[in-house]
Amino acid sequence: MLSGKNILIGITGGIAAYKICELIRMFKRQGANVRVVCTPNALNFVTKLTLRNLSQNEVGVEEFDIPDFKPEHISYADEAEIMIIAPATANTISKIASGICDNLLTSIACAFKKPVIIAPAMNCNMWENPVIQENLQKLAARGYKILEPENGFLACGYEGKGRLCSLEKIYDEAVAILTTKTKGKKYVITAGGTIEDIDPVRYISNYSSGKMGIALADEAYHCGNDVTLITTVDVTKPYKIIKVKSAIEMQEAVNGEFETADFIIMAAAVADYRVKNKSDQKIKKTNDDTLTLELVKNPDILKGLCERKKEEMLKRVQHDRIIVGFCAESENLLTNAKEKIQKKGCDYLIANDISRKDIGFSSDYNEVTIFDKNGGMIKLERASKSEIARGILKVINE
């Protein structure tokens, strides 16, 4: 399965370091080329000889062990397709988050521009430390894949969250990234709720947090694709971000990326209407009990994209572009979704029920039904938005 794939495993100084020997074997059984780099403290828990025999490669530890003209940390970073840091201690996590490069492993991490998986393991009190959580959030925002530790009995005698997650979880995550069929494609993804100004201090918007669109962008990026996220939400990511505000701005941004896109996923909640004559000055309260705003329709961005694709097909423009829409409904989900995909003309439509409190807007979880233009329907049961995103990408690439 992994024949010809180059995997770099970074091991830091935690008791769970011994478990990584089996992870190396799991990758080797599938034909992967595995290289290992350790922090000096990691060798207190697992030997260099063991790791070398299992990986069938020399093990990197010292930053200035340079066998040729190329700095070793750059050599490791260039050769590997994915980097896995497991177990990742609080110390190493904080160094990487702060850009500190004081050993070979952290120097490689700083130079690594491809997918990185971090599997933390530490004492439960360390895990709960706000500084560590802030550093993890910082890394996640920059595109690192964080596999959270599990609850259980810890080596220090405590019981709580801090145990290294299962090796199967790390393995599956790496395989999903390395074997995806979508690698090398360009994804244009929208996220967040658009904002339509009423005056300088008031606006019309919706409850969309942008989490689903961002999860889709993260997963597409982790699989080695070229990603452009067009968002109303402030985010820092390793891929291209276009910040917009209104539906008009979003339309302009999407249209500007259309020509080079292989996939366009419209996950944003775009306002259907905007104020016809927004005020340049704050609207003052009067003695009247009511205030009337005249609204006009916003452009239907999704429908416009589908019409543009149809025009291309009529002109025999050869570009196998896939357009995906989203449908947020509070009632009659399936009926409304079937009508919408026919009306819009998109290749796929992702429908989710916003009336449920355990999924949808602002939640970290979702449950969706994927409709295709040929009448097919696939349901993805409730799961984290990252898992739902992965499921969506798999379906639209089949």
Strand-helix topology:
Layout: E1 6-11, H1 20-29, E2 33-38, H2 48-55, E3 59-60, H3 72-79, E4 82-88, H4 90-98, H5 104-111, E5 116-120, H6 124-128, H7 130-141, E6 145-146, E7 150-153, E8 159-163, H8 167-179, E9 186-191, E10 196-199, E11 202-204, H9 211-222, E12 226-231, E13 240-243, H10 247-257, E14 263-266, E15 273-275, E16 295-297, H11 301-314, E17 322-329, H12 333-344, E18 348-353, E19 365-372, E20 377-384, H13 385-396
Parallel strand pairs: 1-2, 1-4, 2-3, 4-5, 5-6, 9-12, 9-14, 12-13, 14-17, 17-18
Antiparallel strand pairs: 7-8, 10-11, 15-16, 18-19, 19-20
Helix pairs in contact: 1-2, 1-8, 3-5, 4-7, 9-13
Question: Can you walk me through this structure?
Answer:
It is a single chain. With 398 residues, the protein is of the alpha/beta class. It has two domains: 6-179, 3-Layer(aba) Sandwich (Rossmann fold); 186-396, Rossmann fold (3-Layer(aba) Sandwich). It has 13 helices and 20 strands. The chain has helices at residues 20-29, 48-55, 72-79, 90-98, 104-111, 124-128, 130-141, 167-179, 211-222, 247-257, 301-314, 333-344, 385-396, and strands at residues 6-11, 33-38, 59-60, 82-88, 116-120, 145-146, 150-153, 159-163, 186-191, 196-199, 202-204, 226-231, 240-243, 263-266, 273-275, 295-297, 322-329, 348-353, 365-372, 377-384. The strands form five sheets. Strands 13-12-9-14-17-18-19-20 form an eight-stranded mixed sheet, with helices on both faces. The longest helix has 14 residues, at 301-314. The model has no long low-confidence stretch (mean pLDDT 91).
